[in-house]
Automatic annotation (TrEMBL):
This is Uncharacterized protein. It comes from the Bacteria.
Length: 111
């Protein structure tokens, strides 16, 4: 079973041009799938905003982002000051990303 996801639409999205994509993010080292993420606008992925982590919930709002499989630390908590918005600042090359279609996403809870 899969769920049709809808993008969050708010001023953050507007600030980035008003369009979004779903990304499937994996650990570069062990290829473990980490999360589904809503990426707003163009440009490279430098930060992961907590409010854009679709699933799983237990990766949000921690001091650091760690791969559950190989325990590599992939990023650390930061606040994006311009928007007062908590996020993980990613380490360069720590994460692999793949664009996925919303209707192809199967959330962990439903596997
Ligand atoms: Zn890993």
């Amino acid at each position: 079973m899969s769920t049709k996801l809808t993008f969050k639409s708010d001023r953050f999205k507007k600030n980035r041009g008003g369009y979004s994509r779903w990304l499937s993010l994996s650990c570069e080292k062990c290829k473990n799938q980490l999360m589904i993420y809503q990426k707003d606008g163009p440009g490279i992925l430098k930060r992961l905003y907590f409010d854009r982590i679709v699933s799983p919930d237990d990766l949000k709002d921690k001091e650091k982002l760690e791969c559950k499989e190989c325990k590599t630390v992939l990023g650390i908590r930061t606040i994006y000051k311009k928007e007062s918005r908590p996020a993980y600042r990613l380490f360069a090359g720590a994460i692999e990303k793949k664009i996925v279609k919303g209707n192809k996403i199967v959330l962990w809870a439903q596997k």
